[in-house]
Design goal:
Layout lengths: L7 H4 L4 H25 L1 E7 L4 E5 L1 H6 L4 H7 L3 H5 L7 H9 L1 H4 L1 E9 L5 E12 L5 E10 L1 H24 L1 E7 L4 E5 L1 H6 L4 H7 L3 H6 L3 H17 L3 E8 L5 E12 L5 E10 L1 H19 L5 H30 L9 H18 L2 E10 L1 H8 L1 H18 L5 E6 L2 E9 L2 H15 L3 E3 L2 E3 L2 E9 L6 H17 L4 E4 L7
Helix pairs in contact: 13-14, 16-17, 17-18
Length: 499
């Protein structure tokens, strides 16, 4: 029998080139995984299900907690240590979901963690169990993703949507999106449906296209409206038109519709975005005024004096309406309690301040001021006295800042102060110190004397942000740092404190 085995001198020498290639491939794979986790803000770890000890974790996992892998392996080595990083309000929920893996085989959950610097981060986690050859649970593999930015963006969208709904309700306005390709309304707001005397679901079940919509338009206005729609879809021209509609309850209303076209890269109209406003009251008022003027003109020769009185009365009504309109405009941009600018007006002025700073090269600063002890005043003495305290505080703030500065109340006991055209930071420090000194002075209302203090966070353009939102956010973080340090003080935003 022939011996086909390898010679002895070649039997025990593996192919080192293949081993080196495999090691290099695994190294590249690990680098690629680390890069992927960093870009996607994800990380993974593995737990020993029996002992409750952390077996391993990735760089991405450690980065979510703003730590290194070595620090994580020490600080989260045991289950109880890891659970301490979960937000107290989420720990019971997280523990229940994690333990459910034994029955379900996996779990996915959203929760919050607390990092060492006190920052709260939102986490999405997927967990899976592994079993040994006896079918017993041996370990648990968890994949985590930091979804904080997505959560913040979602909350902002929800906030803006709520504001948009309130604006539509106040102004009798609604909006729509129309798709000429499918000839359907892609989106209708609650305000749009309300103008037509219906809810969104009810209206969309009855009206799916513009052909259906035209049926609810007054017969005398249908031809003109159809021509406008056709020209808009063919040429993409913006339009503004007034017409009458019959609501589902039979009532006739006047509406004004304005729309603009969105085009594709080839120039075709792919969507129409429009706004509809109920102008019935306005139209009826205008018609009434025209009728009154016509009647007065017919009687002018014989009833000159009466006409003059009537015209004077009409002018008074117009002035009163202008006054009401001005008051509504003021209320839309100012806080009703203190008369200070609202958050919307504050952001507009901050944008102007930043534009001026960019043009002149000077600094701008944002102060985020929160009253200390105000809740206790409210709880002990009631909201009426609390409102008086807020009004008195607003006057003290206005008296302490410069004429070129702006103070706004953004809700509760929180204020934002915009410091424009700062020659040097010492000016901001002097103003902040003056505010602390003035606000802490006792406030006497009848026989009651109360005291509050203030915590102030300061952010500076351009070091701490180049947009209004970024500066306000940085000042807010700086204020909370002051709160944690004992309150009744001020401090500047520090980048290391925000991570």
């Amino acid at each position: 029998m022939n011996d086909l085995s390898l010679p002895a001198e070649t039997k025990h020498y593996p192919d080192t080139s293949k081993l080196e290639a495999e090691v290099e491939r695994l190294r590249h794979q690990e680098l690629f995984l680390d890069a992927t986790e960093q870009v996607a803000h994800i990380g993974h770890c593995q737990w020993d299900f029996g002992t409750g000890l952390l077996k391993s974790c990735s760089n991405g996992y450690a980065g979510i907690f703003d730590r290194t892998v070595a620090e994580i392996m020490q600080s989260q080595n045991a289950w109880d240590l890891m659970l301490n990083t979960v937000h107290p309000e989420d720990r019971a929920f997280y523990t229940e979901s994690y333990n459910s893996q034994g029955d379900a085989g996996a779990h996915d959950i959203e929760y919050r963690i607390l990092r060492n610097d006190g920052e709260v981060r939102f986490i999405y986690e997927i967990g899976m169990i592994e079993k040994d050859e006896n079918g017993e649970i041996s370990s648990s593999f968890c994949l985590l993703q930091d979804i904080t930015e997505r959560k913040i963006y979602q909350q902002k969208l929800e906030h803006r949507d709520a504001i948009a709904q309130q604006v539509e309700a106040i102004t009798d306005i609604g909006h729509f999106t129309y798709d000429p390709i499918t000839a359907t309304y892609a989106d209708l707001s609650e305000g749009f449906a309300r103008i037509h005397g219906s809810s969104v679901d009810e209206y969309q079940s009855m009206v799916s296209s513009r052909a259906d919509y035209i049926e609810d338009v007054h017969p005398e206005d249908q031809v003109n409206l159809m021509e406008i729609y056709s020209g808009h879809e063919q040429n993409g021209e913006d339009y503004s038109v007034e017409y009458r509609i019959h609501r589902s309850d039979g009532e006739m209303r006047w509406v004004r519709e304005q729309a603009t076209a969105l085009r594709s890269a080839t120039g075709d109209v792919i969507q129409s975005i429009g706004v509809v406003q109920d102008i019935t009251q306005q139209t009826q008022t205008e018609m009434s005024l025209r009728e009154a003027r016509d009647s007065l003109e017919a009687m002018v020769k014989s009833r000159t004096r009466k006409l003059a009185d009537t015209v004077k009365q009409l002018e008074g009504e117009i002035k009163e309406r202008e006054k009401i309109a001005a008051e509504l405009h003021f209320l839309a941009n100012h806080d009703a309690l203190t008369g200070l600018p609202s958050l919307r007006l504050c952001k507009d002025r901050l944008d102007q301040s930043l534009a001026e700073a960019r043009r002149t090269g000077q600094m701008s600063a944002v102060m985020f001021l929160d009253l200390d002890g105000f809740k206790a005043v409210n709880d002990e003495h009631g909201h009426e006295l609390g409102d008086l305290v807020l009004q008195a505080t607003a006057l003290r703030i206005k008296a302490e800042i410069r004429e070129t500065d702006t103070v706004a109340r953004i809700g509760g006991d929180e204020f934002i102060i915009i410091l424009s055209s700062l020659p040097e930071l010492v000016v901001a420090e002097r103003i902040a110190a003056g505010l602390i000194k003035q606000i802490i002075q006792p406030i006497r209302v009848e026989k009651v004397e109360v005291s509050v203090s203030a915590s102030i966070g300061i952010s500076v353009y351009p070091e701490n942000g180049t947009t209004a939102e970024a500066l306000i956010r940085s000042a807010d973080k700086a204020m909370y740092q002051i709160k944690r340090q004992g309150k009744n003080n001020f401090g500047f935003f520090k980048a290391e404190a925000s991570t």
